Amino acid sequence: MLRDDPRPVPAADEELRDLPVIVTGGASGLGSAVACRLRSAGAAVTVLDRRSPEPGVPAVEVDLADGRATEEAVRQVAADLGGLWAVVACAGVDAPGPLDEVPSDDWERVVAVNLVGTAATVRAALPHLRARRGRVVTVASTLGHRSVADATAYCASKFGVVGFTRALTAELRGEVGVTLLTPGGMRTAFFDERDDKYKPPADLDLCDPGQVAEAVHFALTRPDGCEVREMVVTPPTETSWP
């Protein structure tokens, strides 16, 4: 069983063999792609999600909108694996619409999952990440840097993730590597349950989430003494960046 002993970040051409990693939102979309990519590199990945990931992927079922339940899930994974080396916070939801038309519970759930869930995951993991000089990757959005109408909840949550991550970077400097990932539009099920007016056009250029997952792998495999602080990964024709 792995223990909380310091271990240097592996070089880019080495696998992340047996390093314990939590991926939130790993049952679908970018989270699933990240979990798959890191598992292929040998990492001991555990998914935190309300839904089950693909068969064979270790997971703990938890509602990431519940901060205390999320913290307990992280502690459970750390106890099972003998520590943690990295956290990748991919979980994200949305409830588009005018502020006064989106039900209050739906609006607040977006902020709870996207921002509170991210902070709760990192908070509970910190003792283990500090012990191993580990890594954190948070996932913002181009709409965490630029605002649009009918997206007050999503923009508020993702602007929050940007601020949280930059403050965390300053707080953990020299102790834990922190990377802010800002992806643009991706081909995932994220848009499936929206009203048609909030879905991207069928001909819109979107990224393959597997390619964005490669960016996460890149950030996690920088050698000791080198960190990727922020990354923006978008399709060439992304309209929401810059």
Question: How would you describe this protein?
Answer:
With 242 residues, this protein is α/β, with parallel strands linked by helices. It has a single domain, classed as Rossmann fold. The chain contains five helices and seven strands; from the N terminus they run βαββαβαβαβαβ. The protein has a seven-stranded parallel sheet with strand order 3-2-1-4-5-6-7, with helices on both faces. β4, α3 and β5 (135-139) form a beta-alpha-beta unit. α1 crosses α5 (209-220). It starts with 19 loop residues before the first strand and ends in a 9-residue tail after the last strand. Residues 5-13 have low confidence and may be disordered.
As residue ranges, the low-confidence spans are 5-13
Strand line-up across the major sheet? 3-2-1-4-5-6-7
Please describe the biggest sheet, giving its number of strands, its sense, and whether it closes into a barrel: 7 strands, parallel
What is the CATH first-level class name?
Alpha Beta
CATH topology tier name: Rossmann fold
CATH superfamily: NAD(P)-binding Rossmann-like Domain
Number of strands: 7
Short description:
With 242 residues, the chain is α/β, with parallel strands linked by helices. It has a single domain (20-233), classed as Rossmann fold.
Which helices and strands, and how do they pair?
Elements: E1 20-24, H1 29-40, E2 44-49, E3 59-61, H2 67-81, E4 86-89, H3 104-132, E5 135-139, H4 152-171, E6 177-183, H5 209-220, E7 230-233
Parallel strand pairs: 1-2, 1-4, 2-3, 4-5, 5-6, 6-7
